[in-house]
């Protein structure tokens, strides 16, 4: 995702349920409409949850990256 | 003002809820039973007052629903009423401690659950919890697309644990047809790791679910959505042909599994046992399928009965059996079991950032009863309780170590 410049980064690593989604929902509000939020996650379940959250809220999941055991999501705020 | 709330309540009021509303004579036995009221002194937190508030609103213009018709004390609708109704219906963990003290065992939890859904239609509160519930619903629709990535992540976890524990044949099966047990975790590897260890030691034929047990739609009384989210798991269990669905240490989800699934799914569940993973691990221990090192925990330790496992599902003995197997200084809380104080963090409040201060305050009776035991380790079996107890420990400067009932078994396990 070299062509994406996130406005904000959320470190959701190691958070307990349901905090990865709660923090993502809160943090996206601090990004301008059209801007991108980067989310860092490690837990298997949180990755799926954030993807599902994007679908249900209509925010756009631009892509994912993996490296050193950390998953990075890039979410564009749609509204 | 509150028009949609009243309209929705009238549509959704059930026969049991009408009985509860009629039967409550405001005797006051519930007043001191509510941790919110004890901590706040706010009348809107008194269970009987919560009920009366809703009754008055439903009486506006006549309710036409028979059983409530005798009740003629209509309530006014102004800003204060809106504030009160929000306190009454959102600031409740649905712990049902009040129902134990009530001479008729009237269930304020049912009122709150129904009322929350009606308040949401009015646009009043707990939007975050509803949003998470919607995400859980979406997950079922896109699970096939998520599967490959999820399996890959679990394989990575499996590889790491094999190395860490020196167990090269450790397996974390996912979506495995023919497994006996379908284990449904909560989000986070902390819910998978101890069970991977225990299942391996018990030589269990198990599989990890593609879903998580949590069901936030239940917290906001959106039962059709809650049922659909639960149905993804029933479908998965049937597709894989499992004999047992075991839910992680998650209070509200366990309650739905043990108390709602029969009503929701009936024959679809034929031949499938349902249990908390705490019950399953206690079975392993009783049957000698796993061995633990007694005395692994020597420091003072107590157990907090999660309302949804204890008072609401009757699971008291199994967690205590696990504790007694590994701890030498187990100290019971007083009052305990069905009279145990709620931690103050249930009912979806953990997910609502705006409710942090309310729940920290409502947790004071819990703090005081744990302090009286002198325990340094607090064991419990619900994800919300764990988060709340950790928050209480931090905010009140208590230095507790919070552990799950299955965590202490995994720590003491002989591999």
Explain how this protein is built.
- The complex is a heterodimer of chains A (79) and B (415).
- Chain A has 79 residues and is an alpha+beta fold.
- Chain A has a single domain, classed as 2-Layer Sandwich (Translation Initiation Factor IF3), CATH 3.30.110.
- Chain A has 2 helices and 4 strands.
- In chain A, strands 1-2-4-3 form a 4-stranded mixed β-sheet, with helices on one face.
- In chain A, strand 1, helix 1 and strand 2 form a beta-alpha-beta unit.
- The radius of gyration of chain A is 11 Å and the shape is globular.
- Chain A starts with 7 loop residues before the first strand and ends with a strand.
- By secondary structure, chain B is of the alpha/beta class.
- Chain B folds into 3 domains: 123 residues, Fumarate Reductase Iron-sulfur Protein, Chain B, domain 2, CATH 1.10.1060; 157 residues, Rossmann fold (3-Layer(aba) Sandwich), CATH 3.40.50; 112 residues, Rossmann fold, CATH 3.40.50.
- Chain B has 19 helices and 7 strands.
- The longest helix of chain B has 23 residues.
- Chain B is globular, with a radius of gyration of 22 Å.
- Chain B starts with a helix and ends with a helix.
- The model of chain B has no long low-confidence stretch (mean pLDDT 94).
- The interface between A and B is medium-sized, with 27 and 38 residues.
N-to-C series of helices and strands of chain A:
EHEHEE
Q: At the third CATH level, what is the topology name of chain A? A: Translation Initiation Factor IF3
How far do the termini of chain B sit from each other?
62 Å
As a percent range, the share of strand residues of chain B is 5-15%
Amino- and carboxy-terminal Cα gap of chain A: 22 Å
pLDDT under 50 segments of chain A (min length 5)? none
């Amino acid at each position: 995702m070299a062509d994406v410049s996130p406005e904000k980064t959320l470190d959701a690593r190691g958070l307990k349920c349901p905090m990865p989604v709660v923090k993502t929902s809160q943090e996206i509000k601090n990004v301008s409409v059209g801007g991108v939020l980067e989310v860092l996650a490690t837990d298997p379940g949180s990755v799926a949850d954030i993807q599902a959250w994007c679908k249900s809220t209509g925010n756009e999941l631009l892509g994912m990256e993996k490296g050193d055991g950390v998953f990075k999501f890039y979410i564009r705020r749609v509204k | 003002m509150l028009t949609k709330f009243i309209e929705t309540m009238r549509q959704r009021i059930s026969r049991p809820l009408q009985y509860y509303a009629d039967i409550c004579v405001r005797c006051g036995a519930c007043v001191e039973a509510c941790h919110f009221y004890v901590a706040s002194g706010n009348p809107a937190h008194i269970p009987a007052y919560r009920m009366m508030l809703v009754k008055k609103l439903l009486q506006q213009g006549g309710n036409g629903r028979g059983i409530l018709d005798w009740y003629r004390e209509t309530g006014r609708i102004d800003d204060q009423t809106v504030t009160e109704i929000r306190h009454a219906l959102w600031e409740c963990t649905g712990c049902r401690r009040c129902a134990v003290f009530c001479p008729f065992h009237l269930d304020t939890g049912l009122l709150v659950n129904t009322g929350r859904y009606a308040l949401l239609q009015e646009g009043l509160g707990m939007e975050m919890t509803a949003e998470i519930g919607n995400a859980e619903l979406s997950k079922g629709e896109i699970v096939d697309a998520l599967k490959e990535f999820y399996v890959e992540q679990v394989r990575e976890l499996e590889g790491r644990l094999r190395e860490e524990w020196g167990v090269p044949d450790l397996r974390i099966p996912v979506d495995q047809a023919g497994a006996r047990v379908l284990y449904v975790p909560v989000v986070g590897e902390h819910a998978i790791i101890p069970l991977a260890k225990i299942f391996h030691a018990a030589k269990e034929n198990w599989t990890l679910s593609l879903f998580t047990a949590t069901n936030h739609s239940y917290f906001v009384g959106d039962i059709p959505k809650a049922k659909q989210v639960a149905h993804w798991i029933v479908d998965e269990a049937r597709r894989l042909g499992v004999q047992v669905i075991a839910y992680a240490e998650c209070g509200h989800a366990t309650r739905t599994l043990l108390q709602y699934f029969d009503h929701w799914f009936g024959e679809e569940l034929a031949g499938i046992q349902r249990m908390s993973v705490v019950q399953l691990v206690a079975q392993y221990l009783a049957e000698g399928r796993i061995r633990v090192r007694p005395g692994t925990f020597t420091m003072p330790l107590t157990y907090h009965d999660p309302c949804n496992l204890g008072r609401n599902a009757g699971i008291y003995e199994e967690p205590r059996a696990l504790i007694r197997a590994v701890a030498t200084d187990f100290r019971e809380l007083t009052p305990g079991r069905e009279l145990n104080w709620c931690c103050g963090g249930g009912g979806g409040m953990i997910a609502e950032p705006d409710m942090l201060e309310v729940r920290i305050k409502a947790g004071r009776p819990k703090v005081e009863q744990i302090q009286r035991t002198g325990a340094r380790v607090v064991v419990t079996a619900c994800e919300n309780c764990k988060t709340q107890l950790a928050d209480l420990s931090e905010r009140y400067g208590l230095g507790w170590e919070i552990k799950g009932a299955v965590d202490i078994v995994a720590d003491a396990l002989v591999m």
